[in-house]
Design a protein that fits this description.
This protein is mainly α. It has 20 helices and two strands. The chain has a two-stranded antiparallel ribbon.
Length: about 625
């Protein structure tokens, strides 16, 4: 373990000790159970067992087995911990920056006064950087590892600045030579990091590696050279992580790659470079798609870092491809999204031989990304109501697959796609049917109703309460969509009657308004007839299936029909339609009442059998 890991472990144990002491105070335990901080040197010390009394009926409670001489329950201990952190970490980093800035000012002052020529300036910088790196080893051998790493950072920084100045400022060496020297510095820093088990040195090396093309930029578009170098640098980071569990280097590599890519893209990209750019973007994506698997291999309990990297990498690559491909062809972009979904499904077949829970979470993330890409591909490729149909079909497939493999996550995605389809169908899709019943609108509604029926069937076979709730909601939504679809057909029928089926007198003529009034009255009666017929059908199904839930839906619909007949039909419908509405509704209500009075479902016996009846 490194010094930093040991310090973090000590901090955790110190926090736990303080919490135990606070609990003992709350429980009013005797003072002898709370070890006071002795004036000895800081460290872990064994605490002898003692008796603890808590009022009457005292029990033997063992005191904490470990205590810190400078515990964090006192203000001085807290100040000392903060002071140590500031002194050993923050001042160290600030010192590195201060030395580099001071050296830069000194060199600039010397250069401005012509004390040293260009070649001498570069030579001094290179020699100083190498000397500082070698000098730092003396401190490391004596146990001052953090200070040694700080000196190495200073030396590496001086080397980078000297090489940059030799090319950009004084033009003493060609670009290729300086580039090779910077790569050598980066490789040497990585080698030191691996041999000395120092992650901080690897961080310095990677930062220097990504700064190299920026420092040596000449303003000329060299895409292949730039991205080839970045690919090699990312592969080097992967190689380091294979040997050392330094997963934070992967995040650093991802950030550096993305920054360089975006900087180049906004400055140089045009459509002629799409093939080369897409190839390199795919290589970057592949490297960081494998990285989460390496995280799981290297460390148990990796937490959310692999999941976050997998998600951000997928979103970044998709947006990169969308920016390049969509302006050329929407169809190709949809196929690209589907292929990317297939890649994530393929990644689920790779086993990392790591923590099973973490691996399962990563597989679920890959599955979620694949389904999300499929869902996005539908509106990219399809248009109009075909998007809605695509989401309904996707929902049915995911629901079937989720039932086969017992995956709650797939069921969630299936319901999400279904909700998207229903909302689009109700509030976004516009249809212009030319025939009644046999039209595209009715086809889409029938597909939606079928999928909702499948949801209800799948959920009712599940014994969980949440599944039964989903089944109930699906049945209600199914009936609501059926009523909406049939109501649209009634509206279209009478709209055609108004538009073409009747003579067309002058707009201001009385005959025109009387004809319009007749059609409106007939349409209002047809709506009432539809609600009564559908309510009767639900009641029959409820009796046949012995389903109280379906019968309650029928009763609610019939109650709404009663309100419409007594409130709207009485005042708006013609005498003949008014009579028919009341007679049909009365017969329907009498039939339902007779069925309940005959007690065909034995409801009275069920009530009598209930406790307390």
């Amino acid at each position: 373990m490194s010094d930093e890991d040991i310090k973090q472990l000590l901090e955790m144990v110190r926090d736990l000790t303080v919490r135990i002491h606070r609990i003992e105070r709350v429980l009013h335990l005797s003072p002898e159970a709370i070890p006071s901080p002795p004036p000895a040197e800081s460290g872990l010390q064994a605490t002898p067992p003692g008796r603890v009394t808590a009022g009457e009926g005292a029990q033997r409670v063992p005191p904490p087995s470990l205590s810190f001489a400078h515990s964090r329950n006192s203000e001085p201990g807290l100040r000392e911990g903060l002071e140590a952190r500031i002194g050993s970490h923050w001042l160290n980093r600030i010192g590195i920056t201060a030395v580099l800035v001071g050296a830069a000012y000194f060199l600039k002052f010397a250069f401005d006064n012509q004390w040293i020529g260009p070649s001498g300036r570069i030579a001094i910088g290179l020699i100083s950087g190498i000397a500082v790196v070698l000098w730092s080893e003396r401190f490391r051998t004596k146990g001052y590892r953090l200070f040694s790493y700080a000196l190495k950072a200073v030396g590496v920084g001086v080397l980078y600045l000297s090489l940059w100045a030799s090319f950009q400022v004084y033009h003493l060496m060609p670009n290729g030579v300086v580039f090779a020297c910077m790569i050598l510095v980066t490789a040497a820093s990585c080698a030191l990091a691996l041999t000395q088990d120092a992650e901080i040195l690897a961080v310095y090396a990677i930062v220097g590696g990504f700064l190299t093309p920026v420092l040596l930029s000449t303003g000329v578009n060299r895409e292949i050279a730039l991205f080839s170098y970045v690919v090699l640098l990312d592969l080097g980071i992967l190689a380091v992580v294979v040997f050392k569990p330094w997963r934070r280097l992967l995040w650093l590599g991802f950030a550096g790659t993305l920054i360089l890519y975006l900087a180049w893209y906004f400055e140089y990209y045009d459509r002629k470079q799409i093939e080369t750019t897409l190839i390199f973007a795919s290589l970057f994506f592949a490297i960081f798609a494998i990285s989460p698997l390496l995280m799981l291999r290297q460390e148990q309990g990796a937490g959310t870092m692999p999941l976050a990297l997998a998600f951000i990498n997928a979103v970044t690559f998709f947006l990169q491809a969308y920016a390049m491909i969509s302006e050329i062809s929407k169809t190709e972009m949809a196929w690209f999204s589907l292929m990317l979904a297939a890649v994530y499904l393929g990644l689920n077949a790779i086993r990392s031989r790591s923590d099973q829970a973490a691996e399962s979470n990563l597989k679920l993330m890959h599955l979620a990304l694949a389904i999300g890409l499929i869902t996005v591909a539908i509106p990219i490729r399809l248009e109009s109501h075909w998007i809605t149909i695509g989401w309904f079909i996707e929902s049915a497939v995911l629901l079937w697959l989720g039932g086969r493999i017992k995956s709650d996550l797939l069921n969630v995605f299936a319901l999400t796609a279904l909700v998207l389809g229903v909302l689009r169908l109700l509030f976004y899709d516009n249809f212009a049917p030319t025939t009644l019943i046999f039209n595209m609108r009715m086809v889409v509604y029938v597909i939606a109703i079928a999928v909702l029926g499948f949801v209800a069937y799948q959920s009712r076979t599940n014994r969980h309460e949440e599944a039964r709730t989903i089944a109930a909601v699906a049945i209600v939504a199914l009936n609501a969509l059926a009523l909406v679809a049939l109501s649209y057909e009634i509206h279209d029928y009478y709209s055609r009657q108004i538009a073409s089926g009747l003579p067309a007198p002058a707009f201001w003529a009385p005959e025109h308004w009387s004809q319009m009034r007749a059609v409106e009255i007939a349409r209002g009666f047809t709506y009432s007839a539809l609600f009564m017929a559908y309510g009767a059908m639900l009641m029959i199904v409820g009796f046949l299936r012995n389903s109280a839930f379906v019968r309650w839906q029928a009763l609610v619909l019939i109650a709404a029909t009663i309100v419409k007949v007594f409130v709207y039909d009485v005042s708006q419908l013609d005498r003949v339609y008014r009579i028919l509405s009341f007679i049909v509704l009365g017969i329907l209500l009498l039939a339902i009442s007779f069925a309940y009075q005959r007690d065909w479902l034995k409801l009275s016996h069920k009530i009598a059998e209930q406790p307390g009846s």
